Amino acid sequence: MGSKLYPRPIRFNIRHFAENHLTANDITSYEQFCKDFNYTFPKYDSNTVRMNVKIMITNERNYRPTRKHLAMGWDDLFFAIGEGLEILRLYDSSKDPAPLTSNVGVRKLTWSID
What we know:
This protein is an alpha+beta fold. 29% of the residues lie in helices and 12% in strands. The chain contains three helices and five strands, in the order αβααββββ. The chain has a three-stranded antiparallel beta sheet. Strands 2-5 form a two-stranded parallel ribbon.
């Protein structure tokens, strides 16, 4: 199952974009990442991008717990540094706290991850 705008769903594209543009030690701002992603994938509405990036921030306390997460840790992509969402880096399970869980459940991946 893909989106109507691109062959793969938005969270697949966000993960692929982040993993190809950020290294383990890179930091970026939430705003800059969303802007860069939207430049590469212009068919997505900017609010849709922002919402999906928030879901993928492992320590985002206001939004993440109220949304379904994808299975296999697929949504565990970013870690916010400091207060708020201003600065992000890739999530590192060996040093970061466990991701916040969803209060509304998990859904299966509906696409191939290779």
